[in-house]
Amino acid sequence: MCMVRVGLLIARLFDAYQSHAGLCESSLEQAILESGTAKGRLIHYHSLLEKDILRSLQNSKTQKQNNASKARISEVWNAAADSGVSTLWQQWHCDYGIFTVLTSPLFLKPTRDVPSEPDVATKRWTEPAVNGDHWKVDHKLSEGDSNQLQSCDNRSIQEEKPRSSRSQQLSSSSQDLNFSMQECAPPDGYSSLRVMDAHSRTTSVSIPSDYLIVQVGDAAQLLSGGELVARPHCVMRPTSDRDVSRQTMAVFLQPAWDRSLSIPPGTAQERALEAGGVATNLETHIPLLASRWKDGCTFAEFSKETTRPYYGADGRQSRK
């Protein structure tokens, strides 16, 4: 709810600016409130090591194959530091709602040795995870320093006994490797989020641990007549460590599905559609806004046309 309120406050400030400047009338705050919903997602970006482990486990059909997979996992672990692979965690894209509110990311790194128990206060709880499995999360915070980012020795995530066969395989393999996930500082000193401006220049965004970041989406660009601009962005895999995973909480604020995405009266369509610059679309291969939007279309129709090039049968991310 805190993240929702931040998005609503920014929408209110923009609406006040539009009114004070005598620009086109728009009400982003009202558009968000009319939807009555906000989607919250905890997004986990797998490290290359995790992807290799999951791939090995998925290919296991019998106990014999499972034992071979465990041997393969050890090989992957030992070779992890020798790989210089650098890819995108998330392809270039623009958000298509009004605002996306993001927390600063949390980075986790595996360690083979189980850390010794520090003299700290421990808080435990169990949260539901995907497919009905449960994971126990132990937050271990140093006394008098609970609001600061902890070192890799002071926070760990350990598995509770899972219920599905796949999770049992993961648990067994994790025990054989004797590793736990430890919080660590951002690799390369950045959050891995990169943003592109209208001149195709990219910037790495650093997000302090006590900050929220708000991204503008296509719907806000259309409803504001181009006063707000949706910028292409991507998430880079760290170049310094292939074993690091990334997780962040995102809250998506968007119009109601049946809301018409009409450009404000008196605003030229070209200005609203091309406010972000055409060059960025050529660099990132993001479909032009004009190719995804039709005058009078609903947000649901616009969403379908926007997600199809990414996640459809022939989309760029359909098999990722």
From TrEMBL:
InterPro entries: IPNS-like_sf. Residues 165-175 have a biased composition (Low complexity). Residues 137-181 are annotated as: Disordered. It comes from the Eukaryota. Gene3D superfamilies: B-lactam Antibiotic, Isopenicillin N Synthase, Chain. SUPFAM superfamilies: Clavaminate synthase-like. Residues 144-155 have a biased composition (Polar residues). This is Isopenicillin N synthase-like Fe(2+) 2OG dioxygenase domain-containing protein. It comes from Physcomitrium patens.
